[in-house]
Design brief:
Two copies of one chain form a homodimer. Chain A has 304 residues and is an alpha/beta fold. The first copy, chain A, has a single domain (3-300), classed as Ribokinase (UDP-N-acetylmuramoyl-L-alanine:D-glutamate ligase, 3-Layer(aba) Sandwich). Chain A is built from ten helices and 13 strands. At the A-B interface, helix 7, strand 13, helix 9 and helix 10 of A face helix 7, strand 13, helix 9 and helix 10 of B.
């Protein structure tokens, strides 16, 4: 089924204990689209870049089945740029620079061919842009997934809540779930967030896995313990891309299938962190992904 | 099979956001023994208390199949006492008082009837006491499990390493695994700890579950997301008691059975935190435990 992804396409500068990646490809929409492209080939990207963004990268997305009619290119401006450094064993990151550039003017316009999209991935952006995307859809989509973060809770609470009302799935981390709900227990937090709108609450816990809550049911997905995490940037977006990509491929939004989608998202995120930027995500194939899925199955399996 | 547990039997004073439990029953050996008693009824307790410890509590342990010939009672002294307060949503605790009392003189002597014990649980105590316990065993036990903590790594490294060499299983938390191994990645940490002796490394991650490592194999056990955690005291000891209690009951130390033991340990810990002290652990029965096991099965189950 068709999958619309809206979010940033950008440059990153990333320092980790394993090296320094200068002006590499980044952006939530980039990670999510690459990740989803292993599951479905009708992906419709909505974003904005400057004239400095390499055409070759856009071509590579095309080759993966990602339509870029909705990618606005502002020739005389620069792409969004983020620079950050990871420390304390990757558990903390410091933002060194944020240059909005073209992102300051981003007013997403959905091409006519996008307006019947059935699966919608709202990347972490201002709630206004997320709402504008939803409002341009012609047909009632099968599933809307939103990612967001604590920043929008701090600076745009009311607009955020309006978006939360309209989505089926929200993906946030544990601290964000607590902030959004005002509840400490994640069970209570999910129950509170259900009341705000989303039928499904996905709580991303990084190296501790993910939790899926829906109508009193809970699924706990493991994370793969890894020897080497080279660059955590984009892991959450890659997770979201694998998650919704698998749902779009299978066109099944049952709780059981959502569980599989969580595993595929976790699998894709586990690849993402093995190399800087989207490098690892460019090299995958079905056999490699299937083998990693089997690792997750073995990791979590027990019989009583 | 026979199970020997050595550790503290004590009084606690516990403050949490849910209340203040004054001079309640505590101690690693108490929690572990109560927990294990739901799996096996040949438990041999080794500990020390003062004349102030209630005989009724000892009688209740007897009724659960816990032999207390190895419980030294020093009539004119006081039992070990710990006071602590939990804050920041139970993630931090402050020790308010530690009175060693009888524990300062603890020199464990195994009764003759204990010396053929097959399953050995070395609770978190000085490495010297752990080693003295091992050295008094007559027969080669099936499995020795040790719990320890960062404190012993700081103050008794060499003695600790000697104990680590002799045990089959070590149970520690993620930070302790990192400190013991000098490795940040838990995969690398477990590999390093295997080299020190233990064939099995169990990493307790509290609300994030537990990991079992052995010879390149990994099992990730979920924790049950809970609405109410009233008192986390003793959860790790309760986990250890359920873990080794199940192994002693089934007398099977294969990786597959260790996985089940981890689930039973996690199940028992999930009960422990629902009430102060050992109160909840006194009220369980097989049906209640089985129902909670099924919750864990449902929580982690997925099919790809």
């Amino acid at each position: 089924m068709s999958l619309l992804t809206v979010g940033t396409v950008a440059f990153d500068d990333i320092k980790t204990p394993f090296g320094h990646a200068e002006k590499v490809i980044g952006g939530a929409c980039t990670y999510a689209s690459w990740s989803a492209s292993y599951f479905t080939n009708d992906i419709r990207l909505v974003s904005i870049v400057g004239g400095d963004f390499p055409q070759d990268e856009i071509d590579q997305l095309h080759d993966r089945g990602v339509k870029t009619e909705g990618l606005e290119i502002v020739a005389d401006k620069k792409s969004f740029f983020w620079a950050g450094e990871y420390h304390d064993n990757m558990n903390q990151r410091t933002t060194l620079a944020t240059e909005l550039n073209v992102l300051a003017d981003f007013d997403p316009v959905l091409p006519a061919s996008y307006k019947d999209s059935q699966y919608i991935m709202l990347g972490n952006l201002t709630p206004e842009i997320q709402m504008k995307t939803i409002n341009q859809l012609d047909t009632d989509p099968t599933l809307i997934v939103m990612d967001t973060m604590n920043f929008w809770m701090d600076v745009a609470w009311d607009a955020l809540i309006e978006v939360v009302k309209k989505v089926d799935v929200i993906t946030i981390n544990d601290e964000e779930a607590r902030q959004l709900s005002g509840k400490y227990s994640l069970v209570d937090a999910a129950a509170e967030i259900h009341k705000m709108g989303p039928k499904y609450v996905v709580i991303k816990k990084g190296e501790h896995g993910a939790l899926l809550f829906s109508e009193g049911k809970i699924f706990s997905a493991p994370a793969l313990p890894m020897s080497l995490v080279k660059d955590p940037t984009g892991a959450g977006d890659t997770f979201a891309g694998g998650f919704i990509g698998y749902l779009a491929q299978t066109d099944n939004v049952s709780f059981e299938n959502m569980k599989r989608a969580i595993i595929y998202g976790s699998v894709m995120a586990s690849f993402c962190v093995e190399e800087f930027s989207i490098e690892k995500l460019k090299t995958l194939d079905k056999a490699t992904i299937d083998a990693r899925v089997q690792q997750f199955v073995d990791l979590a399996a027990f019989s009583m």
